[in-house]
Amino acid sequence: MGGGIFGPTMDLMRSEPMQLVQLIIPIESAYRTISYLGDLGLFQFNDLNAEKSPFQRTYAAQIKRSAEMARKLRFFKEQMTKAGLSPTKSLRSSDVDLDRLEVALGELESELIEINSNNEMLQHTYNELSEYKLVLQKAGELFHTAQSSVAAQQSELEAYNTTEAATDSALLLEQEMTMDPSKHVKLGFISGLVAREKSMAFERILFRATRGNVFLKQSVLENAVVDPMSGDKVEKNVFIVFYSGERAKNKILKLCDGFGANRYPFMEDLNKQFQIISQVSGRLAELKTTLDLGLAHRSNLLQTIGFEFEQWNFLVKKEKSIYHTLNMLNMDVTKKCLVAEGWCPVFATDQIQNGLRRATLDSSSQIGAIFHVLQTKDSPPTYFRTNKFTSAFQEIVDAYGVAKYQEANPSVYTIVTFPFLFAVMFGDWGHGICLLLATLYFIFREKKLSSQKLGDITEMAFSGRYVIMMMAIFSIYTGLIYNEFFSVPLELFGQSAYGCRDQSCRDASTAGLVKVRATYPFGLDPKWHGSRSELPFLNSMKMKMSILIGVAQMNLGIIISYFNAKFFGDNINIWYQFVPQIIFLNSLFGYLSLLIIVKWCTGSQADLYHVMIYMFLSPTDDLDDNQLFFGQKFFQILLLLSALAAVPWMLFPKPFLLKKQHEERFQGQSYARLDSSDYPPEIEPHSVSHNHEEFEFSEVFVHQLIHTIEFVLGAVSNTASYLRLWALSLAHSELASVFYDKVLLLAWGYNSIVARSIGLIVFISATVGVLLVMETLSAFLHALRLHWVEFQNKFYVGDGYKFFPFSFASLGEDDE
């Protein structure tokens, strides 16, 4: 599969040999040791302080310090995101001192917080002054309009005062002007801005609260203004409320507060208005300049942080992960050493020891770290060294269950069988080319796309790009065999072997065609497409092909179980599980596959349904026309008896042999020498005492009974399950044919360019949406089920756990 840089050739068939290792590390070199092991990424630490809370561990203070630094970096990232900046990718280097970095981060955070606070205050003042300026302008316009109206009314009033008839139609204003000046009522007013969506409610409640004893005038602002309190752009109206009395004023002030209306002072004197407007405008200009300078300074500061952000972020995460790992280690009794335990691959022994020696030298320690391999009966973690091509196939298998330590890995076969079974259901080389082009785009741009954040579906497709590439290549191959290019047959490998009986071809649809040339060299003859016998022929061929593929893959699974048993030295499973299973499966469905091949080779008209049914119902009856070869009747009886004998062979011997094996293993161990154990009774390892448990024969027998019934019934149901290959292949072919005949060809029958364009668009949309997306997903899921259930249940235990080494390479962007 490929070569490792340091270790032996990468082998996907069985997981890497692992060993449990104890490291005794002097305290002065512990930090560098863990750091170098993290760079290596081949050691999985076991937590020796699982009973302690995070606050009781040795390096809790250092982790708290790292967490505080990480919080500051998150704050910087949030500020950069708000400012529309992104961290600059930089080469990681470890020449930054963490103590100086902590001080620098604190200073930068304080400076940034101060800049933000000042900017917020200045922006708040700027927004308030902007609103104040608008109120002065709009309210001034309202007062100017009112004064013009009053002047016009006064001139009219003077004209009417000369006649006696004017007394009956005097206005309120006329009466006030003729009254004694000492009796005039002085009206107060309040001006400000209110949100336009609240203006109607504000007016109604103001009227009700004061019982109509106010006069409200509003003016609409054309553009939205920035609200000083929220900082959002809001559409507002300028208002002026005229009132009389202190009680009315208090009510108006409370309503303004309730509606979030901002109040601003206003002078009736025109000169003072102009003076205030000029002052506000000057103040706004100053604030604008100050704000721009502040934002420029903030932007420069964030850009400076952005240049170093990735490096700082990685260093802080690295620091935190190192101390988190150190907290998993035990402190020695002398308080001078740390004791670590963990798993590592055997091939990494030299690399780990080199790292330990390097850490000792770099930390100027007088004592070197000790590397000691422990003997254990615990199951080691499973570790497969994969590359970017094989990792996706390994993930498909791991989604079902992680392989038990050193059991056969299904992904070796899945690399070929998974895309092949997909292609059997998806066979169309036109659709295969479309899939191939899409996945080649991902592959050629993988470096750029891997550093970008993609959507969920795109990310899923990108991570499985090599799986999709294999699926596309196999689809092109099966599509050439089916001779389908978007459901259209093509004579790629020569002319069809069939032709008409005469040149007129009048009886082609009734009498049929005759063979006029040699057999079509590769795949299906194009003349089958569109003929009356196309569907019966393809149904028969694909159904038989599905059975052959299914029986072959199930046999492969049973054969792998033999190699598993041989690898672990389990002779009981070889003789009392593998042998009866292979006999039972092939006595029934292996024989059916043989009959299919013989029938294809001989061209016999035998009914295989009849042969298989009466093999069970009437095994001694003559076969007559259904006989395919000499001695078939005797052979069938022999196979039937073998299948019947295989069932008790699977069921009974194994539980009794396991019981006998258990008794022999522990016979006489109840009387052991006093010095036979290296452990005192109170500290005897759990794994040593575990072996003396009672053997539950009934439990083992019931388990074997369930396993036997499951295999016997599964042999039938699993074989039938492979018929999904035939069903989905037929469905895909018919859907493609319907889209081509009923959409594209139908639209092409019109002479209108519009009709043809619509037909072409509908055809492309249906092909992409249904055949290239939905059908791809459907075939993928069915191929997944065939591997997980029909194939892997013959040999795969899948109850292991993954090897998760301590590695800095796995420190993701969102990993804290």
Strand content: 5-15%
Mean pLDDT, as a whole number?
Answer: 86
Helix-and-strand structural type: alpha+beta
What gyration radius follows from the Cα positions, in whole Å?
43 Å
Low-pLDDT segments = 1-10, 163-176, 670-691
Number of helices: 23
Largest sheet: 5 strands, antiparallel
Q: What's the total number of strands? A: 13
> Tell me, what's the shape?
flat
Distance between the termini: 34 Å
Helix content: 55-70%
Summary keywords:
816 residues, alpha+beta, five-stranded antiparallel sheet, 13 strands, 59% helix, V-type_ATPase_116kDa_su_euka
Plain-language structure description:
This is V-type proton ATPase subunit a. Keywords: Coiled coil, Hydrogen ion transport, Ion transport, Membrane, Transmembrane, Transmembrane helix, Transport. It is a multi-pass membrane protein. Helix 15 runs antiparallel to helix 16 and helix 16 packs parallel to helix 21. This protein is of the alpha+beta class. The protein starts with 17 loop residues before the first strand and ends in a 25-residue tail after the last helix.
Question: What does the secondary structure layout of this molecule look like, with pairings?
Answer:
Blueprint: E1 18-26, H1 27-40, E2 44-45, H2 60-82, H3 98-160, H4 172-178, E3 188-195, H5 196-209, E4 215-220, E5 225-226, E6 233-234, E7 236-243, H6 246-258, E8 262-264, H7 270-326, E9 330-331, E10 337-345, H8 349-362, E11 370-374, H9 390-400, H10 411-426, H11 429-444, H12 446-450, H13 456-463, H14 465-482, E12 498-499, E13 514-515, H15 534-567, H16 571-602, H17 608-617, H18 632-651, H19 653-666, H20 686-689, H21 697-721, H22 724-748, H23 753-791
Helix pairs in contact: 1-7, 1-8, 2-3, 2-7, 3-7, 5-6, 9-10, 10-14, 10-22, 10-23, 11-14, 15-16, 15-21, 15-22, 16-18, 16-19, 16-21, 19-21, 22-23
